[in-house]
């Protein structure tokens, strides 16, 4: 059957129904089992080109919903509207997965969002979670290519935790950051007791910086050489300001094998250790006049315990790459040798495109490897940059000083100098008394 007038055309035959007119199309294709609205060539079971409105004749504030589902063995999803809200939920238990209120607020896991975005997470029974976090789940930030993810968790004591989950779904780092309801922040601890409580650490990589387990092979205490630990908890690139005091643990009950320092030897060490005046290479650290201090390599020769080796940056380049050689986003620095043994392979750059440098950013990039796995002088950036400042390279033998040990040595040396001074004072008093006695005797002889 084929019916048409000047505006509308309807065609009905065994293959389906095709209706068109006034720029609109409705087609039912029996052969493909597809329905098209606003198109005469639907690509799916139902294809609608244009807006869709689904409503109900139920009274205002009554529940009205649209049901979506697959095969019969799968429970359907509901797009539900009632009152002034809109909900997406699963048929089983009617748990709300997404809610939009009339006030422009969105809720996930709740029908009563209290803010623009309100996420309510259900507890789980994962026994790998500890303490108040046992069974707690939260907002997840995941990568698309694996199961590694971050979780933001509201604990049962109303504390907030950020933790890391590994590829197996187990907790990798349980307490990366914790904020309790008292306003205390914890890093590496579940129970911060001061405004900033840090229990994490960075472990140095060189000879006198090691950390191991307390229990060694066979269940015995591990050798002291494997436990020696000079790890770092807080790192500051520049100064640290304290309004009152700096406290260091020094209770005698945490120490053993206590003995007196040989004051004479301490004085010899102080005499062997020279103070130096110097400028820093990095202009941001340089002062108007020279800084007075020590050279870590020299301190290591005299007081080795006062020196720790770790990974850090050297400002050993400090130059503008005047004609950057780019191949796509790979920068080649022709005169750079990255095969030096103590180099980690990372280099630091400050890059920009604005001639004024207003858009300058710091970029730390590991050098590309050749076919043999050796470090090269090529660096892959996210984009090309017009201005490239080469700051320096990361090394694995950066020397740091524990000045407290040097100052403690000074105390012992001062005690030795004080004793020597006391001896000189006593000797001087004796000589003075003897001289006075002799002078008196001379006067007596002169008067005879």
Task: Explain this structure.
InterPro entries: MRF-like, S74_ICA. Pfam families: Peptidase_S74. The chain has 448 residues and is an alpha+beta fold. Among the domains are: 131-198, no CATH class; 264-403, no CATH class. It has 4 helices and 28 strands. The chain has a 6-stranded mixed beta sheet with strand order 1-2-3-4-5-6, with no helix packed on it. It has a 6-stranded mixed beta sheet with strand order 7-8-9-10-11-12, with no helix packed on it. β9 (85-90) and β10 form a beta hairpin. α2 (263-272) packs across α4. The radius of gyration is 38 Å and the shape is elongated.
Compute the CA-based radius of gyration: 38 Å
Assess the beta-strand content as a share of residues: 25-35%
Based on secondary structure, the structural category is: alpha+beta
Detail the poorly predicted runs.
125-132, 205-211
Coiled coil: 414-448
Keywords: Coiled coil
Domain Peptidase S74: 250-428
GO cellular component, one term: nucleus
Give the gist of this structure.
Pfam families: Peptidase_S74. The chain has 448 residues and is an alpha+beta fold.
Keyphrases for this structure?
MRF-like; 6-stranded mixed β-sheet; coiled coil; 28 strands; alpha+beta; S74_ICA; 4 helices; elongated; 448 residues
Secondary structure layout:
Layout: E1 2-4, E2 8-13, E3 16-21, E4 24-29, E5 34-37, E6 46-48, E7 64-68, E8 77-82, E9 85-90, E10 96-100, E11 106-108, E12 117-119, E13 138-142, E14 149-154, E15 160-165, E16 171-179, E17 185-187, E18 196-198, H1 224-227, H2 263-272, E19 276-278, E20 291-293, H3 296-302, E21 307-314, E22 319-320, E23 325-327, E24 330-332, E25 343-352, E26 361-366, E27 378-380, E28 387-401, H4 403-446
Parallel strand pairs: 5-6, 11-12, 17-18
Antiparallel strand pairs: 1-2, 2-3, 3-4, 4-5, 7-8, 8-9, 9-10, 10-11, 13-14, 14-15, 15-16, 16-17, 19-20, 21-28, 22-28, 23-24, 24-27, 25-26, 25-28
